[in-house]
Design goal:
heterodimer, A: 284 residues, alpha/beta, Elongation Factor Tu (Ef-tu), domain 3, Rossmann fold, 6 helices, 21% helix, globular, B: 311 residues, TIM Barrel, eight-stranded parallel sheet, 31% helix
Chain lengths: 284, 311
C-alpha cells in the first residue's frame, strides 16, 4: 500500500485526530489572468492566500463555476492544480474547455472572482528510491503532471517526460517541463508515434538507457494499462492520477468511487479522498 | 444574543441546523468546527457491508442533483469501532441513520446501535434506491406503522422517521409513524427521478433511477413539512433544498422545529456554519429572542385574491 493510501486508512479517524483548524478552505479568489494557450485550453491564474498554497502536486481544487447565459452548472468541478507559487501568491489551472462547467469557467475574465475549495486529495509521492522517474502525460494530463515535474527538479531527480496529444498544436507545457531540466519527448496521433506499440518500445528503450525506475501518468486509461504491463515486466512501480464524476469533492457523498486491486480482492475507493493519485498497479 | 436552541422531543439542540444523512461525514471537520451545528447525522449505515451502486452515482440537472449512491456501508462493526469514537469527541448530539431490508432487521439493528453516545436513531424508511423499483416502507401507512412499531419495541432511544416524498399518503404515513411511537419526523428524503442524455440516449445514472435533491425539491418537501406539522403532535424536522437562511425560515414557518441541510453542503461546504450565523443575525434584525415566533408562523396573505377575481 502506498503512503498516500495509508494516510486515509480507518485509523486516521481516531479521536486524537480531531481537527479544529480547517485544512480545506473555501474562499473567493481573484483572477489575475485568464488566457487561451491554444484552440482548446485556457490558463487561469488566481491570486491566492498562503492557506491554500500549501499544496502537493496531484492535489486538486473544487471550483464553483459561474452561472452564465449559456451554461448553468450546478455541481462544483474538480480541477487539478497546474501551478502554485507561495512567493507570488498564485494558484493556476490549465484546463480544456469541454463542457458545461469549463464552458462557464471560460467566460470569466481577469478581475472576476472565483469561489474555490481546497487543496483536496492525496497528491503524488516521490519515494526516495524513485531516483529516475518517467512522466507520461496525455492531453489534459499534462496539466496535472506539471507541478510534479517542478517537484522532481527541486529534489534533483533527473526526469524524462513524454507528452502525448492528438496533434502538435495541442502539446502544452513542453517548455515548462524543459525548464525543469526534463528530457522532453513529444508524440502525437497525427505523427503516428503515440500508439501503445511504439510507446512501449520507446519506454523500454528509456528503461535500458536511462535507468527509469518509476512511472507517473495521467490522462489516458490506455497508457495507464500500458505502463502497468511494462511496470510488471520490469518491476517498476509508480502512481497514476485518476478522474471520476464527483459531487461533494471532500469524501462525504461516496459518488466518485473506482475499483482498485488489493490482496484480498477489489475495493472501491473515493477518487476525491483516497485519490486522485493512486498506486499505478492497484488502479483498474 | 438570540437563543437558537430548539427541542426535538427530549433532545435539546443548541441550534436548528444539522446535516441531512448522506451529505455529512468526518471529512467535513477539515472544513469547519463540527461543534457549531445543532446535531450530527451520519450517513445511513446497514448492518452488513454493502458496496453501493454502479457509477455514475450522481449527475446534475437544472438546479438539482440526482443520486443513486446505493448506501455503501462499511458495516456495523467498523462503524462502532471507527466512526463512533470520532463523534464522541464533539458535544453535538449524534444521530445515527440506519437502514435494513425488513421490519425485523430494522428492529434488530436499531437495538444493536442503541449504544452510549447515540442521541437518536434516524430510521431511513424512505431511501428510494434500496428496494426494487424505488419502493420503500414510508410509501404506505401500513408498512410505516409496522416497521416503526417493531423498532419502537427494540430501542429506548428517540426514533426519527425519515419520510418519503414518493407517497400519495403523506398525512396518513406521518400519522402512522406517530401512532407507532416515532419521536420525530424528518420531511423528507429525495424524490425518485431520472435523467437521460438527449444526444447519446445514455441514462445518466448507473442505477437508472435516483433521488432528486437540491433547490428544485424544496417546494415539495416544504409542502410535506407543512402537512405533517399540521397532522401530528411530534416535532417535524424539515429537509429538502435548503441553502439560504430564507429557506430555513420558510421551513420553520411551515412548522419545522429544526432543519437538515444536504446537497447545499456539496456546493458550499461551509453552508451549515453560514446558516447558523445568518439565522442568528436574522433573529436579531427582526427583534426575536428565540425561534418560537417563527415556528408554524406561516399564514395566508391578508388579502386573499379569490379565483373569482382572476376570472
Amino acid at each position: 500500500m502506498s503512503a498516500s493510501l495509508r494516510a486515509i486508512s480507518d485509523s486516521a479517524f481516531a479521536p486524537a485526530g480531531l481537527v479544529r483548524q480547517p485544512s480545506i478552505h473555501e474562499l473567493e479568489a481573484r483572477i489575475k489572468s485568464h488566457e487561451w494557450v491554444n484552440g482548446q485550453y485556457r490558463l487561469m491564474v488566481l491570486a491566492a492566500p498562503d492557506c491554500v498554497l500549501d499544496c502537493r502536486p496531484g492535489q486538486f481544487f473544487h471550483l464553483l463555476c459561474p452561472q452564465t447565459d449559456r451554461f448553468q452548472p450546478y455541481f462544483r468541478r474538480p480541477m487539478s492544480i497546474y501551478g502554485y507559487d507561495r512567493e507570488r501568491g498564485e494558484l493556476s489551472f490549465l484546463y480544456k474547455v469541454a463542457g458545461t462547467g469549463t464552458g462557464a469557467l471560460a467566460e470569466l475574465e481577469a478581475g472576476d472572482t472565483l469561489n474555490i475549495v481546497g487543496p483536496i486529495g492525496q497528491g503524488f509521492e516521490i519515494r526516495p528510491e524513485w531516483q529516475r522517474p518517467l512522466l507520461l502525460a496525455r492531453g489534459v494530463g499534462l496539466a496535472t503532471l506539471a507541478p510534479l515535474a517542478k517537484e522532481c527538479a527541486s529534489l534533483g531527480r533527473p526526469l524524462t517526460a513524454i507528452c502525448s496529444a492528438r496533434s502538435p498544436d495541442l502539446l502544452m507545457s513542453t517548455d515548462l517541463f524543459r525548464d525543469c531540466g526534463a528530457e522532453v519527448i513529444t508524440v502525437t496521433d497525427e505523427e503516428g508515434n503515440s500508439g501503445v506499440e511504439s510507446l512501449t518500445a520507446l519506454i523500454e528503450g528509456l528503461i535500458a538507457t536511462r535507468g527509469i525506475n518509476a512511472f507517473f501518468t495521467c490522462g489516458s486509461a490506455r497508457l495507464m494499462r500500458m505502463l502497468q504491463d511494462i511496470g510488471t515486466r520490469h518491476g517498476i512501480g509508480g502512481q497514476v492520477a485518476l478522474e471520476q464524476h464527483m459531487a461533494c469533492g471532500i469524501g462525504m457523498c461516496q459518488a466518485c468511487v473506482r475499483p482498485f486491486r488489493r490482496a484480498d480482492g477489489a475495493v472501491n475507493l473515493r477518487v476525491c479522498r483516497e485519490g486522485p493519485v493512486f498506486d499505478l498497479q492497484e488502479a483498474m | 444574543m438570540a437563543d437558537l436552541s430548539t427541542r426535538i422531543g427530549a433532545l435539546t439542540l443548541k441550534n436548528p441546523i444539522m446535516p441531512a444523512s448522506g451529505t455529512f461525514s468526518e471529512e467535513l471537520a477539515e472544513v469547519f468546527d463540527l461543534d457549531c451545528i445543532g446535531a450530527h447525522v451520519t450517513k445511513t449505515i446497514t448492518r452488513e457491508k454493502r458496496s453501493g451502486n454502479p457509477v455514475p452515482r450522481v449527475c446534475e440537472v437544472n438546479g438539482a442533483m440526482l443520486n443513486s449512491i446505493g448506501i455503501p456501508s462499511k458495516g456495523a462493526d467498523l462503524f462502532v469501532k471507527n466512526t463512533m469514537p470520532f463523534y464522541a469527541a464533539y458535544e453535538a448530539p449524534l444521530v445515527i441513520s440506519i437502514s435494513a431490508n425488513t421490519a425485523d432487521d430494522f428492529a434488530r439493528f436499531a437495538e444493536e446501535v442503541s449504544a452510549p453516545g447515540v442521541a437518536a436513531i434516524e430510521v431511513n424508511i424512505s431511501c428510494p434506491n434500496i428496494e426494487d423499483h424505488g419502493k420503500a416502507f414510508a410509501i404506505r401507512p401500513g408498512s410505516t406503522e409496522d416497521v416503526i412499531r417493531k423498532i419502537r419495541s427494540a430501542t429506548h432511544l428517540p426514533i426519527w422517521a425519515k419520510l418519503s416524498p414518493n407517497t400519495g399518503e403523506v398525512v396518513e404515513v406521518a400519522q402512522a409513524a406517530e401512532a407507532a411511537g416515532a419521536d420525530a419526523l424528518v420531511t423528507a428524503n429525495t424524490m425518485l427521478a431520472m435523467a437521460i442524455d438527449s444526444r447519446s440516449g445514455e441514462i445518466r445514472l448507473g442505477n437508472v433511477m435516483g433521488g432528486l435533491s437540491g433547490p428544485a425539491l424544496k417546494p415539495i418537501t416544504l409542502r410535506m413539512t407543512y402537512q405533517c406539522a399540521k397532522a401530528v403532535a411530534i416535532p417535524v424536522i424539515g429537509c429538502g433544498g435548503i441553502s439560504s437562511v430564507d429557506d430555513v425560515i420558510e421551513y420553520l414557518m411551515a412548522g419545522a422545529r429544526a432543519v437538515q441541510v444536504g446537497t447545499a453542503t456539496f456546493i458550499s461546504p461551509n453552508t451549515m456554519p453560514r446558516l447558523v450565523a445568518e439565522l442568528e443575525a436574522t433573529l436579531a434584525a427582526r427583534g426575536l429572542a428565540s425561534l418560537d415566533a417563527l415556528i408554524g408562523a406561516a399564514r395566508l396573505a391578508d388579502e386573499t385574491i379569490t379565483l373569482a377575481e382572476y376570472a
